[in-house]
Write a sequence for this structure.
């Protein structure tokens, strides 16, 4: 049997409830305490007890797999942890004779991070289905989403690939950031719903008063 792997996170629901491991995901930057030198740590994904990470120090970046234990990630002599998902503490132990600490902050994704950001909705006259897809935030290949299909709303972390976000058996795609389509699967059947992006909630001038 072939085993297909991907870079998406596989955090167990039990670990998420207990440790909030998804808070560790993302790009973190800060400075060492004492010498104020810059340091960075990126958590690409967490799969069980292993995390794919990038550690940048002195202009050098090391990439590899780290060990996950509860709320902590250990990569070589580096251990990181966060309590609030915004600030991270890094501890570097060298040779058991010295320790150095650093304070890091999670970096916001670029403003133009993804054209799928926002709320989408639509109806298909062909199959009589309606669907909505809300993209709350995008951080690299991870997106926090809320999806409603067949009257059921699900929330969680989706996987971003180019102009597509996949979440469970539902995906949304858009080429222009204004019009797109939601495809979702129920059992062995797939349904496609054309959708458009809703204007921001504070855009009162765009409200259709004839509706």
């Amino acid at each position: 049997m072939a085993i297909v792997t991907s870079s998406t996170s596989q955090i167990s629901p039990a670990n998420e409830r207990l440790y909030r491991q998804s808070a560790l995901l993302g790009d973190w930057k800060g400075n060492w305490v004492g010498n104020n030198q810059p340091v960075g740590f990126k958590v690409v994904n967490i799969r069980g007890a292993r995390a794919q990470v990038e550690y940048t120090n002195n202009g050098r970046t090391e990439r590899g797999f780290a060990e996950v234990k509860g709320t902590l990630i250990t990569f070589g002599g580096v251990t990181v942890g966060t309590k609030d998902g915004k600030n991270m503490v890094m501890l570097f132990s060298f040779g058991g004779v010295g320790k150095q600490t650093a304070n890091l902050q999670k970096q916001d994704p670029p403003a133009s991070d993804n054209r799928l950001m926002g709320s989408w909705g639509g109806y298909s006259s062909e199959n009589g289905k309606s669907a909505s897809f809300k993209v709350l935030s995008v951080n690299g290949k991870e997106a926090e989403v809320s999806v409603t299909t067949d009257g059921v709303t699900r929330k969680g972390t989706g996987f971003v690939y180019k102009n597509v976000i996949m979440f469970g058996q539902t995906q949304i795609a858009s080429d222009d950031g204004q019009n797109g389509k939601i495809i979702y699967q129920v059992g062995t059947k797939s349904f496609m719903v054309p959708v458009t992006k809703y204007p921001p909630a504070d855009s009162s001038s765009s409200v259709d008063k004839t509706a």
